[in-house]
Amino acid sequence: MILTNLESVPGKSITDHFGIVTGSTVRAKHLGKDILAGFKNLVGGELQSYTELLQEARSEAMQRMQEQAAQMGANAIINIRFATSSVAQGASEIYVYGTAVTVE
């Protein structure tokens, strides 16, 4: 599956258009990690546990989007975008969307 945030795939032609595909996941913070992150906030620096949590969430949302596109018969997803929102205290949704197409 070709993935791009461009409106086309350079060097390839779009032959079929299947429409919008999406993927999402909702993740909650881990209480233990939240306490450690609070301490890290006092001294500054990267909150690695949150970085890992967000990376896992993005990967899972992308995988779900790719599965949806594959079921439609697409071999590429163009114009990919990410969004995030808070759905409850301590829980956030990662949402990814793009356009499923076939390219040659």
Structure explained in plain terms:
- By secondary structure, the protein is of the alpha+beta class.
- The protein has helices spanning 31-43, 48-72, and strands spanning 2-3, 14-28, 76-88, 91-103.
- It has a single domain (2-28, 57-103), classed as Hypothetical protein apc22750. Chain B (Translation Initiation Factor IF3).
- The chain is 37% helix and 41% strand.
- Strands 1-3-4-2 form a four-stranded mixed β-sheet.
- The longest helix has 25 residues, at 48-72.
- The chain is elongated, with a radius of gyration of 17 Å.
- The mean pLDDT is 87.
Which tags fit this structure?
about 100 residues, alpha+beta, Translation Initiation Factor IF3, four-stranded mixed sheet, 2 helices, about 40% strand, elongated
